[in-house]
Design goal:
With 121 residues, the protein is α/β, with parallel strands linked by helices. The protein has a domain of 79 residues. Helices cover 35% and strands 15% of the residues. The strands form two sheets. Strands 1-2-5 form a three-stranded parallel sheet. A two-stranded antiparallel sheet has the order 3-4. The radius of gyration is 25 Å and the shape is elongated. The protein starts with a helix and ends in a 9-residue tail after the last strand.
């Protein structure tokens, strides 16, 4: 009985609910996908290995499947200079981190993980 007397109100409420529904068109069709050095190699990481893994991701079709990140997680740095800037390990990464970043022309986004800390702690 209530429904019959208030059908205009019910229709209005249903219509408003549809109007307020969120749209997710094109948003995060897949989770962020990539490869992280730490998961397999921990501190056994160097420039040659990162480049080889990038090549393998492309040649295996993983890049086409949505893998877009290469994360160099740890052990790429050796210290900080007098200004507190992180100094990359030139033995493990002889071309430098910038050159490795330019290797991302294969279509990857290179991410480098580092921690900030106070040097007096």
């Amino acid at each position: 009985m209530w429904f019959m007397r208030n059908r205009v109100l019910v229709v209005l409420l249903l219509f408003c609910t549809v109007l307020n529904a969120q749209k997710f068109e094109g948003l995060a069709k897949t989770p962020p996908m990539g490869w992280n050095t730490w998961n397999k190699f921990a501190c056994n990481v160097d420039e040659k290995m990162v480049r080889e893994m990038a090549d393998a991701i492309v040649s295996s079709g993983m890049k086409d499947a949505g893998y877009e990140y290469i994360v160099i997680d740890d052990c790429w740095q050796i210290s900080r200079d007098e200004n507190g800037t992180i100094v990359p390990d030139s033995t493990r990464f002889p071309s430098g981190m910038k050159a490795l970043g330019l290797y991302s022309l294969k279509g990857f986004e290179i991410r480098v993980v580092f921690l900030r800390w106070k040097q007096d702690l």
